[in-house]
């Protein structure tokens, strides 16, 4: 195989989900909700399929969805976008990440990225020929260290790849933290690609999602990625979008057209219906996720598994070193047999492996009964 993929193994999410299936475990690993998104979106998809919307959609996405994305950005954040030139539909945020990195990173360019990172960032920085420069969010607070961010930038830095709310720590970057990102990006003339797929899943009532592009001087240098998957519980649809200034959206689209050309036609009108007519779905989901977060975090702590309260996303991290497991990977590999439960070790999301070695991630986008069963099994384990 090409050096482009050297050392890139199977994604941990696929590996751990296969392990869950094989072992009959409660799967608290991969972030996949076990209840579908809004029924009116499902019906809209069914109608689109039966109405013959089954051939290629325009490469940049159907107008109705681009307009719905622009309207969403305006309604929630006061961002104005031209749906014709500043919005492109992608095959999930995953394709947005891939196309953005292929479009903006030259071989040898450095990409500053938060760690623990989402695993596709690592693979795509490598495939683009880039070099990652991680900035570590450290336990117990997982805040962005301004000095570490400044120190990560060199003359070879091309872009910053941000993620807020952050998977897997749940950190929701504050305006003050984003101010530092903006200061660094402007000082070094960098582009920022910001992955905001958990934008509506801020669970801490004192926290707020601030899109980076709304900070002074940032609109012209920020490419914002999001998708339907998390906030509308439609992860399998793989409909996402990228928004930003025309020059960055055009660059991303140039790469996207050779990856997929276009994204799933019948799901696009249905995604527009979700954004336009089920705008209240994420808030309802958020309320129920908050209860599930509290249930899981309290349950784990009650079992003596030291667990941090995440501000956002649907993941929580635990420190398993207090249980006598110095290595989260070993803990997660033994857990299906010991307890019939699957979790994700976070060391695989780090260059600084020591910073994440003792941590494991649980997904709580599961029905209460599933969380309850997971906790019961953990409680019964040796
Ligand atoms: N970014 C982050 C941080 C994620 O957690 C995920 C989730 N799976 C994605 C991107 C991918 O999103 P999508 O399913 O829309 O491709
Ligand atoms: N984003 C999801 C997670 O973090 C998984 C997506 C995937 O399997 N690639 O669990």
TrEMBL record:
Q: Does the keyword Transferase apply?
A: yes
Spell out the InterPro entries in the cross-references: Aminotransferase_I/II_large (IPR004839), Kynurenine-oxoglutarate_AT (IPR051326), PyrdxlP-dep_Trfase (IPR015424), PyrdxlP-dep_Trfase_major (IPR015421), PyrdxlP-dep_Trfase_small (IPR015422)
Which N-terminal residues, if any, form the signal peptide? none
Specify whether rRNA processing is a keyword of the entry.
no
Q: Which Gene3D superfamilies match?
A: Aspartate Aminotransferase, domain 1, Type I PLP-dependent aspartate aminotransferase-like (Major domain)
Database matches in SUPFAM superfamilies: PLP-dependent transferases (SSF53383)
Please list the residue ranges annotated as the Aminotransferase class I/classII large domain: 26-368
Keyword terms of this UniProt record: Aminotransferase, Pyridoxal phosphate, Transferase
For this record, an example GO cellular component is:
cytoplasm
Give the top-rank taxon of the lineage listed in the UniProt record for this protein. Bacteria
Q: Which family does it belong to?
A: Belongs to the class-I pyridoxal-phosphate-dependent aminotransferase family.
Under PANTHER family, the record lists: FI04487P (PTHR43807:SF20)
Q: What is this protein called?
A: Aminotransferase
Supply the source organism for this entry.
Nocardioides daphniae
């Amino acid at each position: 195989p090409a050096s482009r993929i050297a050392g890139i193994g199977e994604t941990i999410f696929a590996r751990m989900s296969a392990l869950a299936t094989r072992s009959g475990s409660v799967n608290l690993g991969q972030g996949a909700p076990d209840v579908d998104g809004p029924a009116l979106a499902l019906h809209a998809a069914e109608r689109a399929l039966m109405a013959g919307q089954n051939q290629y959609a325009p490469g940049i996405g159907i107008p109705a969805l681009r307009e719905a994305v622009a309207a969403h950005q305006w309604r929630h954040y006061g961002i104005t976008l031209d749906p014709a030139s500043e919005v492109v539909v992608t095959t999930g945020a995953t394709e947005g990440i891939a196309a953005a990195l292929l479009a903006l990173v030259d071989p040898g360019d450095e990409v500053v990225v938060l760690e623990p990172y989402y695993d596709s960032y690592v693979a795509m920085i490598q495939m683009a020929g880039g070099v990652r420069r991680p900035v570590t969010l450290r336990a117990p607070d997982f805040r962005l260290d301004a000095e570490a961010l400044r120190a990560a930038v060199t003359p070879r830095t091309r872009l910053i790849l941000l993620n807020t709310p952050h998977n897997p720590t749940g950190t929701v970057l504050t305006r003050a933290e984003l101010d530092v990102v903006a200061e660094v990006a402007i000082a070094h003339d960098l582009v920022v690609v910001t992955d905001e797929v958990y934008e509506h899943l801020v669970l801490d009532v004192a926290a707020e999602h601030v899109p980076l592009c709304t900070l002074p001087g940032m609109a012209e240098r920020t490419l914002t990625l999001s998708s339907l998957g998390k906030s509308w519980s439609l992860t399998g649809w793989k409909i996402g979008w990228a928004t930003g200034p025309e020059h960055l959206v055009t660059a991303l689209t140039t790469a996207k057209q050779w990856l997929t050309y276009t994204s799933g036609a019948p799901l696009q009108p249905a995604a527009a219906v979700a954004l336009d007519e089920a705008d209240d779905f994420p808030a309802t989901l958020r309320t129920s996720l908050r209860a599930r977060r509290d249930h899981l975090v309290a349950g784990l702590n009650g079992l003596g598994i030291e667990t941090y309260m995440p501000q956002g996303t649907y993941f929580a991290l635990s420190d398993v070193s207090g249980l006598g497991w110095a290595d989260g990977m070993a803990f997660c590999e033994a857990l299906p047999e010991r307890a019939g439960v699957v979790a994700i070790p976070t060391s695989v999301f780090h260059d600084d492996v020591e910073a994440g070695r003792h941590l494991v991630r649980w997904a709580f986008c599961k029905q209460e009964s599933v969380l309850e069963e997971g906790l019961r099994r953990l409680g019964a384990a040796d």
